[in-house]
Amino acid sequence: MLFKDITILDENLDVQTNMYVATKDDRVAYIGKTMPQGDFGEVYSGKDRLLMTGFFNAHAHSAMTLMRGYGENMVLQDWLSKRIWPFESKLTSKAVYWGTLLAMAESLRFGIVSTSDMYFFIPDIAKAVIDSGAKNNISNALVVNSDIPFEERSEVKELRVVKKVFDGAENGRIKIDASLHAEYTSNEDVARKLADLAKELDVNMQVHVAETKLEFEECKQRHDGRTPVRYLADCGIFDTRTTAAHCVWLDDEDYDILREKGVTVATNPVSNLKLASGICDTAKVLDKGVNLAIGTDSVTSNNSLNFIEEIKTLALVSKVRAGDPTAVTPKQALYAATKGGAIAQGRDDCGQLKVGNKADIIVMRTDVPNMRPVHDALSNIVYSASGSDIVLTMVDGKVLYKDGEYKTIDIDKAIYETERATQEILSSLGE
Predict the structure, then answer these.
(1) Which helix (H) or strand (E) holds 50?
(2) 397 three-state secondary structure
(3) Most buried one in 173, 199, 319, 360, CB count within 10 A?
(4) Are 67 and 376 in contact, with CB atoms under 8 Å apart?
(5) Residues 6 or more apart whose Cβ sits within 8 Å of residue 341
């Protein structure tokens, strides 16, 4: 595909006007001021359009579209124990497939090209992602609620199988990660063994870390004053490429540990605000040299996958937390949404608009009232844009969403089947 005479955010997230961008197969083949030689297929007019790399959602539970709006105005522990966990106990593979496919449709609509998922029924998540054309790092978070031996745990057995079947599938669009749900839902023996298994299988790790003050304080009580970050580091959880979701409650040493271990902090600003968990000190995360990425969390605690909204919220709450209106610039926020997330997922050839990188591209309208005038294009994207301004999403060189049309997803069927699965589960719960 050839994008003609279009404004772009280049690999450094700097604005370049009147550019040509060509894709060939799954890669960016050309970026320049002049028309490239060769046939690149469809020509896309760039008039009143802005092209940039797609967004990377670094923490999500995609199939929880099934529960959008189901648990409202509750504190986290009540939300989990009274609404989420009972519902999840009734999940089926079919429900997870359709819930994930609906989430992929919503993600593509809002420019998300790749997601880090933590949920059940990995084969069904993988099938939905494959069918959609998107990318995903898929994990099933290990939760310890019994004394079953480590190797007999369903999550461990599943990880060994899906690593062989799905890891690297679809030309690398699917990656399989290990996952520990959290310090407070596991024990040290299991955490250490999972860390060893992740190293054995050579997979990334996903884990919830210090989401609430209660979690932070109780961890210190359980583990001789150690914070969740210190405890998980001691268990070896951070010895492979790790994404630590939330990280709202950290002490000074924690930032140093995260930097030294190369851990990515995936902040989830909208979800953390909605659940009143707190505000991650993202300005300090960046100042300390820790890689920062952005996650949506689930739509049950968000309640959407509108990534533009997530980026804006990150930028705003970072300033409030720091008490400094200069904290977290638009470029830093956009980096976290793109390259920061790609780094978290181990997708080294993604997250930047660069020749040779994967052709994961989004196009935004700029001929709408909220995007004019343009004094600073990056500020307009972060503070003025709407998710609805995204008119094209391409993954690995294939257009998956364009001008309201899904190329790979029957959106009406995805909505119908997700709603039907939700009603079946609610009926089984007596609701």
Answers:
(1) strand 49-53
(2) coil
(3) 360
(4) no
(5) 55, 56, 57, 58, 114, 116, 266, 293, 294, 351
Q: What are the φ and ψ backbone dihedral angles of 79, each rounded to 5 degrees? A: -60, -45
8 Å CB contact between 298 and 271: yes
Q: Where are the alpha helices (DSSP H) in 28-121?
A: 76-78, 85-88, 93-109
DSSP state of 388: G
pLDDT in tens, 45-62: 999 999 999 999 999 999
Dig out the tokens for 24 from the structure: 């060939």
What is the biggest distance separating any 2 CA atoms in the chain, rounded to whole angstroms?
65
Q: Is pLDDT at 80 greater than 90 in this prediction?
A: no
Residue type at 257 in one-letter notation: I
What's the token pair of residue 54?
């797609």
Type of residue at 15:
V
| Pairing mode of beta strands 205-209, 178-180 | parallel
pLDDT, one tens digit per residue, over 229-281 is 999 999 999 999 999 999 999 999 999 999 999 999 999 999 999 999 999 99
Distant-in-sequence, close-in-space partners of 58: CB < 8 Å, separation ≥ 6: 116, 243, 245, 264, 266, 293, 294, 295, 340, 341, 344, 345
Question: For 173-212, where are the alpha helices, taking DSSP H only?
Answer: 188-201
R_g of the chain computed on alpha carbons: 21
Give which of 258, 303, 298 is closest to 281, Cα–Cα.
Answer: 258
Strands (E), 100-215: 112-118, 135-139, 174-176, 178-180, 205-209
Three-state secondary structure call for residue 174: strand
The tokens for 117 are 């998922």
Tokens of 123: 């084969």
Render pLDDT for 159-176 as a digit per residue (tens, 0 to 9).
Answer: 999 999 999 999 999 999
Partners of 50 in the β-ladder: 7, 364
Is the Cβ–Cβ distance between 252 and 290 less than 8 Å? Answer: no
**CA dihedral angle for residue 253, residue 347, residue 65, residue 92, rounded to 10 degrees:** -100
CA atoms within 13 A on the CB side of 31: 21
Which tokens belong to 324? 């400094």
